[in-house]
Queue: 2 jobs
Job 1
Amino acid sequence: MILKSLFVFFALAFSATASLAEDLKLAVTTSFANSGLAEILLPAIAEDTGINVQLLIVGTGQALALGQAGDVDAVLVHARAAEEAFIAAGHATHRREIMYNDFVLIGPAPDPAGVASAPAAAAALELIALARAPFVSRGDESGTHLAEKALWAAAGIEPQGDWYRSVGQGMGAALNTASGMDAYILSDRASWLNFGNKGNLALLFSGDPAMFNQYAYLPVNPANHPHVRADLAATLEDWLTGDHARALIDGYLLSGEQLFHFNATPD
Amino acid sequence: MVAPILPMIMSQAVLRRGGHRILGPVTLTLEGRGITIVLGPNGAGKTSLLRAMHGLDRLRSGSVSWAVPTEAARKRQAFVFQTPILMRRSVRDCIAFPLTLAGHSRRDARQQASAMAERVGLAGHLDQPAQSLSGGERQKMAIARALVCAPQVLFLDEPCANLDGRSTAEIEAILLAAREGGTRIVMATHNVGQARRLADDVLFVHRGLLHESGPAAGFFSNPQTPEARAHLQGDLLS
Amino acid sequence: MGNIWQGLTEAARLVLHLDADLLEITARSLQVTLSATVIAALIGLPTGAWLAVSRFRARRVVVATMNALMGLPPVVVGLLVYMLFSRSGPLGVLGLLFTPAAMIIAQVIIIAPIMASISHQAIRELWADYHDLLISLNASRVQRIRALLWDGRRSLLTAALAGFGRAIGEVGAIMIVGGNIDHATRVLTTAIALETGKGNLALALGLGFVLIALAMAVNLALHFLTRTETSGRW
Ligand SMILES: Nc1ncnc2c1ncn2[C@@H]1O[C@H](COP(=O)(O)OP(=O)(O)OP(=O)(O)O)[C@@H](O)[C@H]1O
Ligand SMILES: [Mg+2]
């Protein structure tokens, strides 16, 4: 009797999850997902194309690994060098730039290292290293972490010491850590604006073009994985580079600020 | 009719436990009809002897054989343990358990179990958890469970140890009725009075060895070994 | 303290508003974990009983392996299942990755050893009690196991609930094999991880309270069901 009702329950539960729309699996980075833009784009995509985009929110490294294994149909990431290596290895057919946002330097509001008045991003990091002010690094080879490393390299600094905390976690967890220890941290603007546990932290430095963060869309190579929905991936690419996407992306405001800048070029 | 499983022949049976020989070598034959009483002081090996006959313990050497293959013979035997084994079920379901194992329908098994419970005086306790029975009730339950499958051979290990006089008399009546029905009974007891009332034959065990075996009349009137004589007298003294 | 209070009020708000998303992920949590619990119970409980009544050469090794499997980090199970069901893995053709089915499989692997181990322990004690009786009554191995499972059902329920408790709160494995896809594989625990990541600590904690309430409700419901069914002392 109990077993029977359990079975009915499961049958219902499972059938409820099956839907008629066509599913496309897209691996995206945490920073993109945290921006909240997905909640604007996904319903529009479903409306315009009939594609139900299922987001897998992971780090850049895992996103590319999922694409390589054929477990997703496309990836949307922001790590140029890794993307190019991915294409060179034949895992994706090409990369298509969609939009960019920017990284911002967050830190304790009193700004003990004085980064707010720094002339450039590299100089700001130099000030932090000089002051040996606590700095939290994602340390997870994510796009944000790679960008951070590039900035350190530009500053000519190999960050190390007990002020430099590599947490090996996602943006949110890293921000939570920084908030907990009043540390500096590099974040993408969207994650920062959406972050709910700011504590003493404040946005101290931004605007250097070196901190721009380009997002690109890479469809998984159907030659490696015949089962991937290359057709849907192509439709989605067209949509993401089209006018409706431009309007939604450029028009997406968070706390009154524009987060993303559409920069796809028509083919 | 089911094929008779007797005679049982135990030949040079030896049980060892913890580096000691606790039984044997024992050679005996169980056949015919009636009640065999196993007598002997504490630790003599009565329980061990019954268990060996029933095939519960692996013999170190020697053998026990029945008229039919051992498996088939076991199905026609029942054993009432010195400490009743209580399942975590109602009294009714405990008594019905051997029947369900034998393939009876649940309904049929429960019906027969209820009837058997009535015979041993447990009619008012059918739905009670077996674990909540009193010491004497537990023994009655175990006897009902043993009788419910109408065994050809019934082993009982001190089944009346916790029973009052009246219950003992009731159980003795049940055993005598079973005997009339053709059930061969082998029972260990410390109660010499009970032994005198019930025994057709006697096995006297001492220090793991069978000292005497034979008709009850001869044993009680004229025990052959000094140990048996002392045992009977000791009992009389106490 | 303030944060915990916020979490509580957040939980109350979520529940009072009967938020549609909350209902959906709660139902999915239940669906995945109850399925995993039922399947793992069907595998684990009889396995434990069988190990308790069987004597064979490798038994010690099997029991030790089982106990060791209990300590397996869920993330490792998740990785293993991911690799099995990845499109590049041996079972990739089934297309089960990032579905509730994959999450169920991962949870079964995590909790079946726990259930088997607890049931082994409980049934072994019962077997010691029942041994002579069952041998005397010439019960077949299947009959023995059935009688032990039935009479040990209280302990087995505990074993099943222990498994359920571990599965309902598990996040590492199902995050990897389920992918935390909104409206497809998102459950309470992965939603909690996600909201924590966004710094929405109150919401995350609120979801945590919902999770605790859910686990308690299932426990109470099962105890109630079994109580009414047996109405006995055991
Ligand atoms: N597993 C064991 N290890 C060591 N000794 C054992 C073991 N089992 C039984 N014995 C010993 O074997 C002897 C015979 O035991 P048994 O139970 O057959 O005696 P009994 O005649 O039934 O005694 P009682 O009248 O007290 O029931 C006892 O001395 C007992 O201690
Ligand atoms: Mg004894």
Job 2
Amino acid sequence: MTRKLPKKDVVIVGLGWTGSIMANELTEEGLDVVAIERGPWRNTATDYPPNYVQDELRYRIRHELFLQPEQTTFTFRNKMDQTALPIRSWGAFMPPNGVGGGGVHWNAETWRFLPSDFVLRTHLTQRYGARFLPADMTIQDWGITFDELEPYYDRFEYLCGTSGTAGNLKGKIQEGGNPFEGPRSRPYPNPAQQQPFSHALFAKAARELGYKPFPQPSGNMSQAYTNPLGVRLGPCTYCGFCEWFGCANYSKASPQTTILPVLVRKPNFLVRDQSEVTRINLDSSGKRATGVTFVDTSGTEWEQPADLVILSAYTVFNVQLLLLSGIGKAYDPVANQGVIGRNFTHQTISDVTSFFDPAKFIFNPFIASGSIGMCIDEFNGDNFDHGPHGFVGGGYMGQVQTNGRPIETTPTPPGTPKWGAKWKQAVRESYQSALKPGTGVHGSMYSYRDVYLDLDPTYQDRFKRPLMRITMDFHENELKQNAFLTDKFAEVFQAMGARQVVKEYRKGPYDVTAYQTTHLCGGAVMGTDPKTSAINRYLQSWDVPNLFVMGASGFPQNAGYNPTGTLAALAYWSAEAIRSRYLKNPGPLLHA
Amino acid sequence: MTNLSRRDLLAATALVIVSETVARAGVVSGQLPWHPDAGSPPEAVRPGAWQFFTEQEAAAVEALADRIIPPDPQTPGGKDAGCAVFIDRQLAGAYGHRQGLYTRGPFVKGIKEQGPQSAQNPAETYRAALAALDRYCKSKEGGKSWIELPGERQDELLHAVESGTVELEGIDTKSFFETLLKDMQEGFFADPIYGGNRDMCAWKMIGFPGARYDYRDWVGRHNERYPYPPVSIAGRPDWTPKKT
Ligand SMILES: Cc1cc2nc3c(=O)[nH]c(=O)nc-3n(C[C@H](O)[C@H](O)[C@H](O)COP(=O)(O)OP(=O)(O)OC[C@H]3O[C@@H](n4cnc5c(N)ncnc54)[C@H](O)[C@@H]3O)c2cc1C
Ligand code: SF4
């Protein structure tokens, strides 16, 4: 039996990064807002305090802060003619769970996309001609430009206290920053973090090779910071337990350290934790959401009516809720019709491990932060001429090594046995003098007709709902891109003086057991045409105008950067449209 | 559990009486919830009897530990580092029973890119594999059990298992060996509170300072060896001298 709760103005599904941003913006309008979150309430002092947070086994290996696959997981296959099987334990990506969402345990690498990324199909077609693109590549323009989004990037960076060096201030290129970035209206709110030895050495070698290295934009504080909401963050201690872990120092930008202390005190805001939304409810016309249904930990089902529904449950869960609620037309790759599930993407990641002379190099790899690093952007997006190379896309690359945690980061030179005395000796010798950036090459993944999400026909979750099925493989374009980038990346380590450089190219088929970031994108993409997009440029559903869908599910394809800067900027942009226009006249903000 | 305000839930009781069972899902409003000890500090492994292994299994795993991580003059081997104790406690707990993982059927063998699809949990796999190892040795090694073989012979056998030339009956042998290596090395390098890495021996071996958490003074000191000894979540032995 379903129990009905009193109606609210707004219901927010999932209280991660975008849910927190929307909640704070909409409560400012005086609206009565409830957020319903699948996972537990989480807080620095109680959930990841400095006396035991530095536990590699518990948080990195056993994934304590993440969604438990028992609760729900996905099935996976490479190709449409294979049978998808369930992901029984996380590997390639780690779906978040709990208040703060991915913000609790991200690295906080806080990037902006390139201006050309937002008009990708138009840009590439103009520069190289339509025939340069593979026939089954389904990339498209976003329906928004970099310049429109810039003020909202700025808001997120000032919320977070992002530490970095500007590369382009209002069109003027700045020494020491990323010269390829779009024009920014003001500098980062904090100076860049200090760089440990290996990261600084990478920058020196890159400069000698003619590149323009710059510090990775970091949501780990280079100094104490008070954000515009009045919330204070402390300086990062380069503790080396950042991504996969919560920050015990209040030094990593997260909903907990930037928004929630203010939001929770507002009388018109309320959170229900440990409650999973199972459906968005529609009225009989199917064109209006009436609220959501959720289930709490006792199995009790509740209905939460609301005038406005904000879906901010992270990429795959957004798409799942749309499909299970019958909102929008499900994507059919054979007929090439429908939008929900279409243009699903991830990231094309590879790495280079290098070994230096232990008598000359002591790197202290454990001194690092989640967003530490020096990067180059010469091979990202369309920053270079792709004509001679026969592929499109690219990525940033850098010495971005975040840790020397020994279960994960004890590389040994090729040819070392995996166990025994020689293994032990090689670990001892290499620990201080080997480098393993982790996600050193951070490449784009463009969208294809046969990479998509739908509902699995066999496997079910604990509510007997079908699991989401992922069909995904690398395409030749991305593999070529990766080979090119990985070679360029390795040259820098060579120039740093490594005596052995091992290139770990990304190769197909896509392997769901190997971690490749948690930057899943697409499946409910934004755009200008309802035939090829689920939401309009304000993230408003074309089908159900009182539903807005946040997050990277809206990206038509993925760029060569981490997604959160962009998806957070989009949330602010969408909130602005709701505040200034939608609330005055609820209905479609655009007509197709 | 969080700052529970039942106001809204009670408002719904016009329909149904709210039962106590909703209590685990919480409501947060008005202030940041905080309860003393709301977090869950880790529990240090207690020394003492084996919790999962039989005496015989434990002896076999300790012997395996010393082949996989052999002792040398500077650093203890897997056995003295406590790797078998680590695996024992892990198998007795959440890891051994795949707590939190997706364990619904059907169990179908897929390609390796789809990840492990075994119907068995690690506890069951260890039990079966250790028994199969002894059976194999008894039949092929002149009636001797695994622990009775000389070290060099054990190494040869493990190499054969690793390369797939020896198959233990009824066991996905190669993948068991990979799990064994992973678990041993995790035990060697994890915080000592889990039973391995005794006295932080593995951390001392490589120069990892453990749970120190603050390197602001050192981030700018390039190419200089970090001078301080490691610290565990439980501190350092010399902070809590043994009672005499
Ligand atoms: C280890 C790791 C490192 C990362 N590092 C970076 C980085 O350095 N830079 C970067 O840009 N990005 C990074 N990311 C990605 C980043 O975390 C996400 O892009 C970001 O958190 C997405 O924000 P969101 O609001 O869309 O979703 P989330 O922050 O994930 O929030 C979604 C919330 O919705 C909840 N939810 C889901 N389903 C339901 C439901 N049915 N009912 C109720 N609640 C639900 C979830 O529990 C979750 O709390 C990283 C991710 C991981 C896992
Ligand atoms: S590296 Fe810095 S921001 Fe990250 S967890 Fe450690 S102290 Fe916090």
